[in-house]
Amino acid sequence: MSPCARFQPYRQLLNVPPESLALDRMTPDGRVGTLLLHGAAAWRSGFTPLRVSLAKRGFSSAAFDFSGHGESSNNSPGSLARRLVEAEAVLRWLPDPVHTVVGNSMSGEIAIRLAATLRDAKVHLVLLAAAIYHRNAFEVPFGQAFSDVIRQPESWRQSDALTAIESFTGSLTIVRATNDHVIPHSVADLIEHHARSACRKRIVDLTGQDHHVIAQSQRDAALCDRLADCIIMGRMPIC
């Protein structure tokens, strides 16, 4: 039996008007501890090998498709603001407290904003090749207008996520790909600098990896296990 077959997720639909979000829980211990947020043009299924690696260690997880992606509906324009609403709805719906929030690529911004609202020193925020965006991009529907805002040089330095993370009191792990040609190298440094209240913070550099670390982890078991270690070990010791 394959590892994936041993840890079949429980699939469900969550109504977040006007959308229906496809989500699943992989709960070897019967509880959900980690919420994973996928990036742009991605599905929750991209996290499956990583989540199996977590499950083999006894760590549960939940993931969902943002509207317009994967198996979720596509009834309204997508935006960063809409993504945050959907992530908050999933977080409220989950039956057990979430102790780890993982944001990949575009969802770095969402994960930061979500984790900052929890105001819990036991929360672990994990950013994987994560992006942040100019504050003016937050409400703008995805498309040309959104692209026009974020393509301004170093526009990410004016992100409200930087303000949000200043109040974050949990543990922070930033996983940076050294060959990332999508997210500037200094984004991680800026986030780490603004996380002044974090009880523990670190940057983990993945030497030789490009921006697509999640896609690569589907084919590279060693990378997958290393990402799982970053998620698990960043919580120890609890602040």
From TrEMBL:
**Pfam family example for this protein?**
Abhydrolase_6
Lineage: superkingdom: Bacteria
Q: Domain (AB hydrolase-1): give its ranges.
A: 35-154
Q: What is this protein called?
A: AB hydrolase-1 domain-containing protein
Organism listed in the record: Paraburkholderia solisilvae
